[in-house]
Specification:
484 residues, alpha/beta, FAD/NAD(P)-binding domain, five-stranded parallel beta sheet, 18 helices, 31% helix
């Protein structure tokens, strides 16, 4: 094995076992880059299962009569079905079954929080570790891509209906793929210069390689979906104009790209970034390939990231890879951090310094107005708040300063108000999200549907896809109502 590859802290892979003993095999580890090496590159951290390990892992499935794992999947994948096909070595059929329900198996296998969804409900987890459903999903999708045997789904006869999909993120890709397969003509309008949405601009290369996103986008094109980039609906055209142009229905999947800030003194200092800007520069504008792409934020000596979610983990781990010392400041304890445990663990391994139970109160600047540090306050946990997490309470007189020359704020996002401002008949919540009927994802305007972060606020890729599938079914019913 490569000296720069880790087998993480999991048990070593077991040799292939007979089917009757497979359920007792240990969960198979996934090889990954060693922390020392990966903290200085943007290559993907986990390496994926080899076929033999994938088959052993798939063989652990108990083939439950009542597959609770499926209940935990927002898009309703036939998990026992595809896992059984992996165990049998029919990897192409496994991928084909996956793609009946998800347009992004290679993506979800990497970034979906399986540990709190399908794997959490795995019956095997009652006594052992759950089946590594996400890793097997990734394996099947990667196998057919790298072996050029990706199955192409059938496409129904043209219906003559045209659909505008606004936003080419997870929700938009899901809706476009499902409707194209049903025979509708789909055009995607993407504001940025590359399709993919948050998959392209928000998630770093070391967690989700961009060539995988582009591969899935190209699969959409193969279904006949047209993608127009650099096209901002609300500026270039309004929803009214889309209908005037002949579209029969409109889907809004514009995400939540409006960053939230701390509201503390000094936040306008030079060197303060939203996580959106910081990660977009690195991911979409290839700042990780400096100096060939001169789009990097100034190379700071010490970057403080504020927040405790997956975006905060992406930011603080990216800062390390750009050559900075990296510190994370989070106002609650590690137990309350909403980020995936795997991402927190990787950040700790790589050398990110965690200041937990710590709250920013002021950003300090030098005489040129550039960040020189952050004044913070120690916190302690009080009673649970409305989220169920214990509320952080300030410890009086505990102020201290962390010297730094850049700050990245990763405390959440809201939907961009542009579309709602140009479509006053769309009902909007007090949080700026679009109001929909959650059973159908219909908005307050007939013929307009929405899903993903623009509806729920910043959430997960898989939840956006789950809502997108509901929207696609509703849109098909709207476009082709049953006779009688």
């Amino acid at each position: 094995m490569d000296a720069n590859t880790n087998q993480s802290s999991e048990p070593k892979a077991a040799a292939a076992a007979p089917a009757k003993k497979a359920a007792r095999a240990p969960r198979q580890p996934m090889p990954e880059q060693s922390p020392r090496r990966r903290r200085r590159n943007f290559e993907e951290v986990p390496k994926g299962y080899p076929p033999a390990a994938a088959q052993v892992e798939a063989g652990r499935c108990l083939r439950c009569k009542k597959p609770f794992c499926v209940d935990g999947c927002p898009v309703g994948i036939d998990i026992p079905g595809f896992v059984a096909l992996v165990a049998a070595g029919d990897f192409g059929a496994a991928a084909a079954l996956l793609k009946e329900q998800t347009a992004l198996p290679a993506v979800c296998g990497r970034v979906c929080p399986q540990e709190t969804q399908c794997e959490e409900r795995c019956v095997l987890a009652k006594k052992f570790e759950p089946v590594a459903i996400g890793r097997l999903e990734r394996f099947a999708a990667d196998y057919v891509r790298t072996h050029a045997c990706d199955p192409r789904p059938p496409v129904a006869a043209p219906t003559g209906k045209r659909v505008a999909v606004v936003g080419c993120g997870p929700a938009g890709i899901t809706v476009a793929g499902d409707l194209a397969r049903l025979g509708h003509k789909v055009v995607i309008f993407e504001a940025l210069h590359q399709p993919g949405g948050v998959l392209m601009y928000g998630i770093p290369e070391f967690r989700l390689p961009k060539d995988i996103v582009q591969y899935e986008v190209n699969n959409l094109r193969a279904l006949g979906v047209e993608i127009l980039t650099d096209h901002v609906i609300g500026k270039a055209e309004t929803i009214d104009q889309l209908f005037t142009a002949g579209f029969d229905a409109v889907f809004l999947g514009t995400g939540a790209g409006l960053p939230m800030f701390l509201g503390v003194p000094g936040e306008n200092a030079v060197g303060v970034y939203s996580a959106n800007e910081y990660l977009t520069r690195i991911n979409l504008m290839r700042a990780y390939d400096f100096p060939r792409y001169a789009t990097s934020p100034p190379h700071a000596q010490h970057v403080i990231t504020v927040g405790g979610g997956n975006v905060a983990m992406d930011s603080c781990r990216s800062a390390l890879r750009l050559g900075s010392r990296s510190t994370l400041v989070y106002r609650r304890s590690r137990v309350e951090m909403p980020a995936r445990e795997e991402e927190i663990h990787h950040a700790e391994e790589e050398g990110v310094v965690f200041h937990l139970l710590t709250n920013p109160v002021r950003i300090l600047a030098d005489e040129q107005g550039r960040v020189s540090g952050m004044e913070c306050l120690r916190m302690e946990l009080g009673e649970p708040d409305e989220s169920g997490r214990r509320r952080p309470v300030p410890v009086k007189g505990s102020n201290f300063v962390i010297p730094a020359d850049a700050v990245v704020v990763a405390i959440g996002n809201r939907p961009n108000p542009l579309i709602a401002q140009t479509a006053p008949d769309l009902k909007v919540s007090k949080w700026g999200t679009l109001v929909v009927d959650e059973a159908t994802m219909t908005t307050s305007r007939p013929g307009v549907f929405a899903a993903g972060d623009v509806v729920s606020g910043a959430a997960t890729v898989i939840s956006a896809m789950g809502q997108g599938k509901i929207a696609a079914r509703s849109m098909h019913a709207f476009l082709c109502p049953p006779a009688g």
